[in-house]
Specification:
With about 120 residues, the protein is α+β, with helices and mostly antiparallel strands. The chain has one domain. It is about 30% helix and about 20% strand. The chain is built from four helices and seven strands, in the order ββαββαβαβαβ. The strands form two sheets. Strands 1-4-3-5-6 form a five-stranded antiparallel β-sheet, sandwiched between helices. The chain has a two-stranded parallel sheet with strand order 2-7. The longest helix is centred in the C-terminal third of the chain and has 14 residues. The chain is globular and about 35 Å long.
């Protein structure tokens, strides 16, 4: 398994493709740190990516799990908002998705900056 990486500056979409091939075939699990504008990729579980970001100084309420599909086109297809770490009843997020439209927008903006064609 590839090592989990913290992405702070842009990586090529081909990098995600290579990771996907070595992990799940079609996608890479990622956890986005909204306040710090970074993400961790490469874990078997979103919780693995989350743990690395927590060790690096992020706070749990700031972290959201997504799946990135490098071979899909368009933001709505490439980013899948689905992770057990997103279930946060106390913060009003009742599902595995990211229920707040503004938070989804912010996550998508960060992914767009950090993953380049």
């Amino acid at each position: 398994m590839p090592e989990i990486e913290i992405i702070r500056t842009a990586v090529a979409l081909d990098h995600l493709r290579a990771l996907a091939e070595g992990l799940f075939g079609e996608f890479v699990k990622a956890v986005v740190g909204v306040e710090r504008g970074l993400m961790a990729i490469g874990g078997d579980l979103h919780a693995d990516d989350e743990a690395l970001l927590l060790e690096a100084g992020s706070s749990r309420p700031d972290l959201w799990g997504v799946n990135l599909h490098p071979d899909r086109h368009g933001e709505s297809d490439r980013i899948e908002f689905d992770s057990i770490i997103n279930v946060r009843p106390r913060r009003g997020n009742q599902s595995r998705s990211v229920d707040d439209a503004e938070m989804r927008r912010r996550i998508a903006e960060i992914v767009d900056v950090l993953v380049q064609p």
